[in-house]
Structure formats: structure tokens, C-alpha cells
Amino acid sequence: MDDHPLFRDGLAQLLGKHGFEVCGQADSVADALAWFEAAAAAEKLPAAVITDINLRRGRNGLELIKEAGVRFPGVPILVLSIYDESIYAERALRAGAKGYIHKREPGRKVVEALHCVLEGGVHVSPDLSALMVRQFLGADGKGRSPIERLTDRELEVFQSIGRGHTSRQIAQELHLDPKTIETYRGRIKIKLSLKNATELHQHALRWLEGGRT
């Protein structure tokens, strides 16, 4: 599940070369769930699913993972995304994913990650694994991004702000009331210690451009 057809086609070719059969594709949560329902009705659910975080029509991969996990349990989901692993991998795992791999990794790594989740394992990078161990052992968490304080929905709104979208546009994207978006904006400013809308936009823009804050 990815919002770029060219990338999906390339991934399908890669997987085909390694003996996998791609039985379906989708670019939005709605289309993915509809495909899941049809596959379940035909008793042909996939052995695994690969999804991006960013999907079309407002809803994202985290929502797909949560909903698919409830409606179609037993199908492991691997996240393949361009987004920062330290921000999104833990969120994806909490949502129910069985692995996370960055799109910058070579194809063989993607295949290895898919084999891992198919065999019942959980795939994360060595760096994230070490971070999670430090957290489990009670490390103080110094150096972690304040962005991690945001909820999944707040992070979505934060990203849209960085893209220059207005509250009304974000509300349409996420199918929410504009007043709800304003509430999220207020919470984000508090959590990130930002004074006003200008600081919020600048902060979100820098983060999107790769300067983690």
C-alpha cells in the first residue's frame, strides 16, 4: 500500500524476483480495506502486507494498521516508509505492525524484513533496537525529539502545517471539524513550547525539510 504507483510497481518487480506474488495494491486506507474485505470473502487473505505511512485521501498507514489488525487479525504488516524511523517506527509497532524499514534501504534488506515478519518475527533496524533496549533499561531519554510527545493525530496535523495547509484544508484532509484542528494546533504549540502560529509553521517546515527538532 503506497500512494506512488511507480514505487508500487518497482516494489512488485523486486518481490517477484524473490519468489513473492503480489496479489493486490492500493493507494488509500479505504481502497486497502475494501481489498482486504474482498480477499477475506474469497478466503484469499495475503500472507503479509507492506504499507507506507503516507497514503492518499487523508487517512494514513497507522490507521490502516490499527483497523486491519482488528478486522483481519493474523496478517502481519511491514511498514516501508521514507519517514524518520525514530519518530514513526515505535508508533507503527504500537499500532500493530510487525516491522519497519526505511525506503533508503537496499532491496535485499526489504526482502529480509519481509521474510522476518512472515516467520513471526519483528523487524526494526539495529539503531532502533538499541534505543528500545535503552528505554526498557530505564535510560533517561536524553536526545530524543520533542516531536515524540505528539500523538499520532497531532503529528499528522503538524506535518500538514509544515506543508503550508490551513486549518480548513487540514480538516478536509482528515475529515474533521476545523475547530478540532485548532484544538490540535493549540496542543502542539504547548507540547513543543511554541509561542504562536508563525513559530509553529516554521518549526513544522524545518522538521519536514529534515532538520529534526
What does this structure look like?
It is a single chain. With 213 residues, the chain is mainly alpha-helical. The protein folds into two domains: 5-136, 3-Layer(aba) Sandwich (Rossmann fold); 146-208, Orthogonal Bundle (Arc Repressor Mutant, subunit A). Helix content is 54%, strand content 6%. It is built from ten helices and three strands; from the N terminus they run ααβαβαβαααααα. It has helices spanning 5-17, 29-41, 61-71, 85-95, 107-118, 126-136, 152-162, 167-174, 178-191, 197-208; strands at residues 49-51, 77-81, 99-102. A three-stranded parallel β-sheet has the order 1-2-3, with helices on both faces. α2 packs parallel to α3 (61-71) and α7 crosses α9 (178-191). The two termini are 29 Å apart. 29% of the residues are buried.
